[in-house]
Design a protein that fits this description.
two-stranded antiparallel ribbon, two-stranded antiparallel sheet, about 75% helix, about 5% strand, globular
Length: about 325
């Protein structure tokens, strides 16, 4: 019998991951583009566009990872050893970019080096996240209840493709955030970056979407039989329409719309990912029910989530409300 509470936990973890992609995606993207801005006021403005909110964004990553360990311990026990290298690379990249973020203000004599570190750490973290996703999608070898693959199984042409795609996607998200939150030369540069990145993201979505069904028989069956084939026909059209709207909104001088449309592309990509994976947590190997913690444990943890989730959403919404509007010429809201 399938426990509906397990589905609730799957939705909670998926929501946490989606929130992380949205909220940490744009500040990682700004960091990836950071060294393309002129030294001085332009970089300071770009940095201050994320300074009030970036610290809280990793909360969702912790919730997603911690929730996976607590609600689906078997999946956690299999995924972690399979993906140690990209996960550790991601964490080190996030730590390094955090250190660089703080020290660029406190060590002006070496600011150029900290700026480069901020950019490099963000690229490493983003690429590692994409590689982790790709490695999970392509499947993990399991023997009994343990990982049975090799140390380097995570790196393949597909995982490299997903890693590069996420770098492009976060870069576009960051550029569109700067279009919304800044003005003057920084906004002009962000518009200039966003145009080619739009076509780059559309190409990346297309490449990953074409590659994915041929990774396993399960994916092929989902997307090339009814009702999946209906989505296969419809989704590329919707993505293309949103992509054209996004490109036009960048060129027409709209501020908030490019960011909303980029989020829509991410949302469609995550919807396609969910369709491909459901109901597995490890494709074709482990379903959410096979990997779930005991019912009593899930109930106990759900009580905590019901208390903490509204608090997280509340302080996040409050922070974004307080720092609404554009960054001023002096680099402050």
């Amino acid at each position: 019998m399938h426990d509906s509470l397990t589905v609730v936990w799957a939705v909670i973890i998926a929501f946490a991951i989606a929130m992380y992609v949205v909220m940490d995606g744009f500040d990682l993207g700004i960091a990836i583009l950071f060294t393309r801005f002129k030294v001085g006021a332009e970089r300071d403005m770009a940095m201050n566009a994320i300074a009030p909110v970036w610290d809280g964004n990793e909360t969702w990553l912790v919730l997603g990872g911690g929730g996976l360990m607590a609600a689906f311990p078997l999946a956690y026990a299999v995924i972690l050893p399979a993906l140690y290298t990209p996960i550790i690379a991601m964490l080190l990249g996030l730590v390094f970019r955090g250190v660089a973020f703080e020290f660029r203000w406190r060590d002006p004599a070496h600011r150029a080096r900290w700026d480069a570190g901020f950019c490099i750490g963000s690229i490493v973290a983003t690429f590692a996240q994409g590689v982790t996703l790709g490695a999970l999608l392509q499947g993990i070898e399991i023997n009994g209840r343990a990982y049975a693959g090799g140390y380097w199984d995570w790196i393949t042409p597909f995982s490299v493709l997903t890693g590069a795609s996420l770098v492009i996607g976060y870069s576009l998200l960051g550029a569109c955030w700067l279009i919304w939150k800044t003005s003057g030369p920084v906004q002009d540069d962000a518009r200039r970056f966003a145009k080619p990145l739009t076509w780059g993201l559309l190409a990346a979505i297309g490449a990953v979407s074409i590659y994915t069904p041929f990774l396993s028989d399960k994916y092929y069956e989902i997307w090339f039989t009814w009702p999946g084939i209906a989505a296969l026909v419809l989704m590329p059209l919707v993505v293309a329409v949103i992509g054209v709207m996004l490109y036009r909104s960048i060129g027409k001088g709209r501020d908030m719309l490019p960011f909303i449309l980029t989020l829509s592309l991410f949302g469609l990509s995550m919807l396609g990912l969910s369709i491909s994976l459901w109901p597995d947590v490890i494709p074709s190997r482990l379903s959410i029910w096979d990997a779930a913690a005991p019912h009593s444990s899930q109930v106990f943890m759900l009580v905590g989530v019901c208390v903490l989730m509204p608090l997280i959403l509340g302080y996040t919404a409050w922070a974004y409300w307080v720092f609404r509007g554009k960054v001023g010429a002096g680099g402050y809201h």
